[in-house]
Amino acid sequence: MTIHGIAKMTLLDFPGHVACTLFLPGCDFRCPFCHNFDLATGKSDEVMSEDELLAFLKGRIGLLDGVAVTGGEPLLHRDLPDLLSKIRELGYMTKIDTNGYHPEALSGIISAGLCDYVAMDVKNSPAKYAGTCGVDSVDLSRIEKSIEILKCAPIDSEFRTTVTAELHAAEDIEEIGKMIRGAKRYYLQAFVDRDSVPFEGFSAPPRETMAEYLAIARKYVPEAALRGID
Q1: pLDDT in tens, 81-128
Q2: What is the chain's percent helix, strand, coil content, to nearest 5?
């Protein structure tokens, strides 16, 4: 396993914990508003080896209590369970960010007790899913299976959608709500533009629109909330 990015301390990426965040390369999707597009395409450079990571974590015992693993799409990596096991042997809790396209891998990691928290992106309503992901087609049954796995899992989890003015509308939030009805929690994240976003022209909806979307989401997930709103 090679690590293509690391944030050595974060209070945001692993709710309720002081953590570091690891970035792994590769992704099934090519979302045009992605903040980590070089990671998704595999063009990013390795920043440390697995051995260097474990040495870093050994030196942070007592300072950090969790490790968040993101990407790219972490579940693409067959050796992820082994890495998570080594991290947990050092006493750390673990969190995974996923696009939900690998339900079997997700289920295996949860069943093996290798993860304490999962955050899954739900990109858009079914009709717009592939376009929002920047690909020709998406097998929605895989997304739906991952949603059901997390809704029934004995660990903590969240669903989240990065909302853009150009790709999302009220009816899309309604359809997403139906997909994840009964989830523990759901976050609507306002898009934030960065230099790393591969395509121009994306923007966040106005605050009033985000509030409207939140009201829709709470019909299906009472613990829904907004992120990225000043």
Answers
A1: 999 999 999 999 999 999 999 999 999 999 999 999 999 999 999 999
A2: 35, 20, 45
Q: How far apart are CA 19 and CA 15, in angstroms?
A: 9
pLDDT of the residue at 230: 64
Tokens for 159? 């669903």
pLDDT tens digits for range 133-155 = 999 999 999 999 999 999 999 99
Taking the domains of the chain in order of start, what are their residue ranges? 2-227
Q: Write down the CATH superfamily of domain 2-227.
A: Aldolase class I (3.20.20.70)
Q: Helix (H, G, I), strand (E, B), or coil: what is residue 97?
A: strand
- Which residues lie below 8 Å from residue 46, measured CB to CB, with a gap of 6+? 2, 3, 4
What is the pTM assigned to this prediction?
0.96
DSSP 8: E
Instruction: Report angle CA 200, 205, 210 to the nearest 5 degrees.
Output: 150
> How far does the chain reach from its first CA to its final CA, in angstroms?
37
Over 126-189, what HEC string results? HHHHHHHHCCCCCCHHHHHHHHHHHHHCCCEEEEEEEECCCCCCHHHHHHHHHHHCCCCCEEEE
- Which pLDDT score, from 0 to 100, does residue 229 have? 78
